[in-house]
Amino acid sequence: MNLQRVRCVGGGLVSAPATVSNRGGMRRSVLPGSRAVVRCAYVVGVVARAVLVTPLSGPLARFGKAGASALALWADRSGVSLEVIDAYPSAASAIRAAEAKRPDVLFGPYGSGPALAAAAASKGVVWNHGGATARLARPAYPRVVNGESPAYGYLAAVLETLVAEGLGEGSEVVIMHVDTGFGREVAEGAAMAARRLGLLRRSVTFRPGRARDVLAQVPAGDVLLSAGSFDDDIAIAQWGSERRWRAVGLVAAGVDDLRHAIGDRVERLYGPCQWFDDGTDHPADGPNSAWFSQCYRDANGTEPPYPAAAAFAAGVVWQRCVKEAGTVESLPVLAASQRLDTTTLFGRFRVDPVTGVQTGHQIRVVRWRDGQRVLVDRPRRQM
Known about the structure:
CATH architecture of the largest domain: 3-Layer(aba) Sandwich
Helix content: 25-40%
Shape: globular
CATH superfamily of the largest domain: Response regulator
Number of strands: 18
Low-confidence stretches: 1-45
Radius of gyration: 21 Å
Strand content: 15-25%
Number of domains: 2
Largest sheet: 4 strands, parallel
Strand order of the largest sheet: 11-10-12-13
């Protein structure tokens, strides 16, 4: 696929979502606080067009915008025209609007709920980099390409790490989770892992944003795990730090933001993470984490969170599948993704040939020490 580089009009910072057009009419969407793209490329005879549907407003906007900014970096690097559509308040409506534009590739939203709604409304192929759920599987969703590990492995990975560190059979695990699809999926994965590892378990469920209401009902135990919203996990972390647990694991402890919210109370917490930039990756496709992190910092002034890395990697994998398929047509590219086994800065990409669930990528486990996240898991051997 031969590309011709051309200059786009635009540059510097923008204060609102905008579309930048070049003199040939190619359009690029940029985000508040990000730098407008200044280079584009044409596929000879055709502009390669991508649309991203993701939250740019509402409660998931922070990570939605991060993913959009990262995908814009990929699009600029790869010569693809990118348009971004807000998935809030209706991911289904946004997907229908995106498909009406007939793009070559459609990237889905951040968040399991929006990702499910988008996939259900779609009539084509959706590249899912932001919905960490095993529910987007065949046969119900045959045209979804999953790039992230499912959330049911989040706290299961924490338990496996704790057992490897010496947590004994018969230890008591308390699993707190929000009563949403995401919370139930994470809790179910943790419960299955506890059974397999010979651990005793109890569960406490709470409504979204209401974790504080059930803290008095939480039984004593050796390990406390939580899968709630970010604010719920903050409340549980603050409460848990005042009690004697052998270990506390929170979904929110996998990201840097928790330290800004609770300060020193983050110490010794365990958390799962989809991506950890330790500067040691050597991907088969696309740039490494060091290149990506530097470009993201230059564009946004902050470190990239994992949804940004996931979005960039989705673009890299799509590009590799286009090469394998020899076309940008969505169904041949989808078929190529089902056969592909590769690595990107986000880690390994390989989907289950029957279900389409991501099985190559590994959830990592971190523990907070001296205000920093430190990898403490044992990476599995690549098969």
